[in-house]
Amino acid sequence: MDTQFLVSLSIILATFALYIGIAIYNKAKETSEFYVAGRGVPPIFNGMAIGADWMSAASFIGMAGTIMLLGYDGLAYIMGWTGGYLLLTFLLAPQLRKYGRYTVPEFIGDRFDSHTARVLAAICTIIISFTYSIGQLSGSGVVIGRLFEIDAKIGTMIGVILIAFYAAFGGMKGITWTQVAQYIILIIAYLIPVIFMALQLTGNPLPWISYGDIVGKMGELDRELGISEYFAPFTNGTKWQFLALMFTLMAGTAGLPHVIVRFYTVSTMKAARWSGAWALLFIGLLYLSAPAYAAFSRFILMTQVAGSKIAELPAWTKTWVDTGKLQVADGNGDGVLQWSELIISNDIVVMATPEIANLGMFVIGLVAAGAMAAALSTAGGLMISISSAFAHDIFYRVLKPNSTEKTRLSVARWSIVIATLLAGVIALNPPGAITQIVAWAFALATGTFFPALVLGVWWKRSNSQGVIAGLLVGLGVTLAYIFAAKYGGFTILGIIDTGAGVFGAAAAFAANIIVSLMTAAPSQKIQEEVMDLRYPEQMVYKDGEVWMNDDGSKSV
């Protein structure tokens, strides 16, 4: 057993023990703690928890690799995922928090006064969260498999057991404080390697400033090799695919149930807005670093690996070849590895960076711990969403409204265990790369919840028939396009499966608006509730004018 393995194992086990300890200490004792952490999380810590919930294995493991392989076209992921938080923070989060429910399906069921809409929204939540969790569990398998030098499938099942335990035990209260710890670990683990690489390659420890020089040098290398330049736009897809993917990720962010529920854990609308602001700052630290990671890794591969003799490749390449995530083949038989003969999976760029840059054992172990933190934090939030959709929105609100709190907590915990096991089984043989699977989840959220929530909050005329039609049409169109594009080769304007949300959203908006206008308007009470959502909660009406509640002074 080598020293590297022991160091990495020690760091991983220490972080696992920390997560489990936090979950036990913050065990949820009642349903409000299980679903919304008692609504008492301070905004700055909620921002960290949102960041950890958000920066999944796709972000930590796959983002830099995707940008490395796609170049300019990969920036759609960063712009879409970050821009989505602006949409969510200003368009939906404060209003949904003011409505005061536990889940997105509960908001939809009560806003539209329809059990059918509630159940349909719960089913959409389960489908979206389940799809997303497959990518996270697949990512945990890559990390654990590399660390223990075992098959990634066994690594996936180890991740399943850990997530099932701490998510079921701690609920949202335990997961919130676990995610704060996971954010701190993952951001340190992400930044240290890229800062050291910046120092090695440019002499400047600020990668966000210095990686531009490396991109310029890569442009020269690309021209020498006769390949498309790294920063040339739309070389891996059409501009319509770029825009569709960016919109899908942006609107999907604003419609993801496990992200929205994080805004329910704070005490006020103001706290919800500040949570979004802090989350943008914490998320930006990683997303602004991903392009630097991609540029540095590609430059090192082009200058230190490509062009080397096959027999003299760096030692780290053998380890990754053994995992199946790196392929080197001497296609022309000259004994030298050409750039075109190097096939690297986008899922290993960040994981392999400490070895590529020769940063030492501790950093390798730290990055593994950070990747696990990213995968586990998001998976935990997703499992709470699946659990709350079934246990709260279907079991309690529809099937057994008289069930005791103890029964509801038991159903919630068991639904987490079963959902995690099922997602783990599918993740053993995932249907796509991590970022691709995650993009499907965003497409489904874009086609279902984004139109339903935007119209539910900002259009008082939207009614139960309209939202049901929108959810069904949006889900159907999005799923149909994903399958047609991936398996049937069908595309419109070059938009592939990852951009399917743009069609789902357009169809859902149209169906919701048309059906709502063709049927009876919602009750006056519901329309007044919708209008009230748009005002800060401290405002009240006096004599037809808006006054401030706290000191009685008139608002501006």
Q: Which sequence of SSEs, written as H and E, runs from N to C?
A: HHHHHHHHHHHHHHEEHHHHHHHEE
Which CATH class?
A: Mainly Alpha
CATH topology: Sodium/glucose cotransporter
- Helix run count: 21
Structural commentary:
The C terminus is likely disordered. The chain has about 550 residues and is mainly alpha-helical. Strands 1-2 form a two-stranded antiparallel ribbon. The chain has a two-stranded antiparallel ribbon with strand order 3-4. It is built from 21 helices and four strands. Helix 1 crosses helix 8, helix 3 crosses helix 8 and helix 19 runs antiparallel to helix 20. The chain has a single domain, classed as Sodium/glucose cotransporter.
Task: Give me a quick take on this structure.
Helices cover 73% and strands 3% of the residues.
Task: Describe the SSE topology.
Elements: H1 3-25, H2 31-36, H3 43-54, H4 57-70, H5 75-99, H6 104-111, H7 115-148, H8 152-202, H9 207-225, H10 239-255, H11 257-260, H12 269-287, H13 290-305, H14 315-323, E1 326-328, E2 342-344, H15 349-356, H16 361-399, H17 405-427, H18 434-458, H19 464-488, H20 501-518, H21 524-533, E3 539-542, E4 545-548
Antiparallel strand pairs: 1-2, 3-4
Helix pairs in contact: 1-8, 1-16, 3-8, 3-12, 3-16, 4-13, 4-16, 5-10, 5-12, 6-7, 7-8, 7-16, 7-17, 7-18, 7-19, 8-9, 8-16, 8-17, 9-13, 10-18, 13-15, 15-16, 16-17, 18-19, 18-20, 19-20
